[in-house]
Design a protein that fits this description.
A hairpin with a 3-residue loop joins strand 4 and strand 5. The N and C termini lie far apart (52 Å). This protein has eleven helices and eight strands. It has two domains: 149 residues, Jelly Rolls (Sandwich); 110 residues, Arc Repressor Mutant, subunit A. It has a five-stranded antiparallel beta sheet with strand order 1-2-8-3-6. Strands 5-4-7 form a three-stranded antiparallel beta sheet, with no helix packed on it. It is globular.
Length: 275
Amino acid sequence: MTNKKILIERSTGALLSTNVKKNESIWRYDNCYKMIFSINGSMNYQMKRNDFVLSKEEFMIFNPYDEHKQLSVENQKFLIELDPFFLNEIANSINSYNFDIQFANSIQKNPQITQWALFVSEYVSMYNENIDNSVALFLDHSFSQLAILLIKNTVGNHTQTWDLTSFKTVSPLIYKTMEALMEDYQRQWTLDEMAIVSNLSKYQFAHLFKEITGLSPYSWLQVYRIIRSQEELKKTNKSILDIALDCGFSSVSVYNQLFKRLYGDTPGTFRKKLK
């Protein structure tokens, strides 16, 4: 396979698409939001508190100054960097936040973001090194589109709930189960109970759910509980213990551990930052 690398830099961000295999031996951090998207094949990244293995069409987002290291890339690497001021300006035009967006460090998958990434990747690859003003203009508008998609469809300190609309046509059965989990997120669900909602065997259900969302059913539910807890942290003075139990976590230690893995902060520090 011929080595191929496309790098396009704009004032609002940058795009990198390459099949050149390169492992990073040193930690790095950048003053930008960085979306790593797996076009095809696995991608392995490491953070100080967690390792991530992305499969086909899964992605994750590093916040500005998140320390990370690339361990391996199987096939093509597709990376988008967005300027923090640019993304937060768009976020404030959508909903007036009084804080900078911080995305959760979690593997995610979303049909709209997948469509965006595949389309943009194919478009820029057609031009390869013949980047002219039309490609640059296309990318400027594409960065704005991506910023909106990330703000509306990913997990972060701004997220109030999950918009499931784009999953409805992709997999009605999984969509139905996601709706049920969101409506009764405090319940201690079993895999069998989730599978019954989808009319699938628990093995079929678990495989399909992971394929559609990028997360196991239980992990997805736990992340949704984190989202609901964020609103409690922002808007109430309830104790961390009460919030954890009210949102369906089995203990405050489980809640604290998952929260810190996603955000690098405890719920208490998160609350102080936003208040």
